[in-house]
Amino acid sequence: MPETAPDFSAILAVLARHRVEFIVVGGVCAVLLGAPVGTFDVDIVHSRSEQNLDRLSRALRELDAHYREHLPRRIRPSREALAGSGHHLLVTTSGPLDVLGSIGEDDDYPALLHNSEQVRIDQDVSVRILVLDTLIEVKEKTARAKDRHMLEILRAMKEDLPE
Questions:
Q1: What pLDDT was estimated at residue 1?
Q2: Which pLDDT score is estimated for 3?
Q3: Whole-prediction pTM value?
Q4: Which of 20, 28, 45, 85 fits a 20 to 30 Å CA distance from 14?
């Protein structure tokens, strides 16, 4: 794990530069939507198409990604493992990255794509994130203790939106 603070924009920039098809979900998505919350990792749901798995594998190699739960060993995610619907909890040179085949039972990349939008995070980098309503739905489904506080903030944001 890096000794410095995570650089989530660097992780997203590498994924974007490799043209990985992904949607930012979770805390970083909330931050990009304007929520005043903190988060400890980047969560993405990726397309599991053959071409995208190749691009994702190259990006993860550049980020020196390996599984967090197997430290101090440095086990890297295989392309075959990334093709599944499971969760890959990784650490990179820029901080923690959770690569998710799906969230929930049916919320994979194709299912979430129509509920996402492109946002610019830097002059040269734009990424796809969940829209606010969908992020709220995802957080309601998980109902984890850490999501309840974020849900309050997200709902308040929604109430403040012009109709």
A1: 45
A2: 57
A3: 0.92
A4: 85
The predicted pLDDT at position 11 comes to 98
The SS3 assignment for 109 reads: helix
Q: How far apart are CA 53 and CA 49, in angstroms?
A: 6
pLDDT, average across residues 150-157 = 92
CA geometry: angle at 84 spanning 81 and 26, to 5°?
100
Q: Helix count (H) and strand count (E) of the chain?
A: 7, 9
pLDDT class of 105 with cuts at 50, 70, 90: confident
Residues 6+ apart with CB under 8 A from 1: 68, 71, 91, 96
Rg, the chain, Cα only: 15
Find all residues with CB under 8 Å of 104, minimum gap 6, and list them.
Answer: 138, 141, 142
CB 100 within 8 A of CB 112: no
Q: For residue 30, is it left (φ>0), alpha (ψ between -120 and 50) or beta?
A: alpha
